[in-house]
Design a protein that fits this description.
- There is one protein chain.
- The protein has about 180 residues and is α+β, with helices and mostly antiparallel strands.
- The chain folds into three domains: about 1-60, no CATH class; about 60-135, no CATH class; about 145-180, no CATH class.
- The chain has helices at about 5-20, 45-60, 75-85, 105, 115-120, 150-165, and strands at about 25, 35-40, 40-45, 65-70, 125, 170-175, 180.
- The strands form three sheets. The chain has a three-stranded antiparallel β-sheet with strand order 1-2-3.
- Helix 1 (about 5-20) packs across helix 2 (about 45-60).
- The protein is elongated, with a radius of gyration of 21 Å.
Length: about 180
């Protein structure tokens, strides 16, 4: 990072700290020394809030960006691994996937914890609420046909059948709509 970039970053950090200092606070019930800060209708610890604001300030999604938004402990690691594998499937042969030697959190950064790293990524993750509804798409049964060709769907079905082979799990299709059910 150049000296000018460092100065801008320091000024931005000071601006964020100034903003945080003006927000409503309340004591954290799990700590006698930490405060929670209210921002955009939610309560955050200062460390996470400063990173969240930095991410909101510096991260500009591209039209083909994917933001994975999940609650903690709901399968985020699995979601990151699956999403990374899908979005980079044409970049690496299966035997050379970065997921074979790196943790999914290294491949798909949390944009609030590493906004400078996430800035140029097309796939990032967050545990924070994103208020802009343009980031969301309502998934519906059969909607995959609007995004994948029949050949792509058949290829995914074969991959899943191969992966589930011998596990006792499988994909079942309804004769009425040819959609996967459990």
């Amino acid at each position: 990072m150049s000296k000018t970039e460092q100065q801008k970053s320091t000024a931005a950090d000071e601006g964020i700290k100034q903003l945080v200092s003006t927000l409503p606070t309340k004591p954290d019930c799990n700590s006698t020394t930490n405060l929670l800060y209210q921002y955009q209708g939610f309560w955050y610890h200062q460390f996470y809030l400063e990173h969240l604001i930095a991410a909101q300030t510096h991260f500009t999604p591209e039209p083909n960006s994917t933001i994975l938004c999940s609650y903690p402990k709901t399968g985020t690691t699995w979601l990151k691994a699956l999403s990374f594998a899908i979005t980079t499937r044409t970049h690496y042969p299966p035997s050379q996937s970065p997921l074979l030697s790196r943790f999914p959190h290294d491949c798909v950064p949390f944009f609030e914890l590493a906004p400078s790293v996430a800035r140029n990524k097309l796939l990032v993750a967050t545990h924070y609420t994103i208020h802009n509804s343009s980031f969301y798409r309502k998934g519906e049964v059969g909607d995959w046909r609007n995004f994948l060709t029949e050949e792509m769907g058949a290829r995914l079905d074969k991959i899943m059948a191969d992966r589930f082979a011998g596990s006792g799990l499988g994909l079942w299709f309804s004769a009425s709509n040819q959609e996967t059910t459990n």
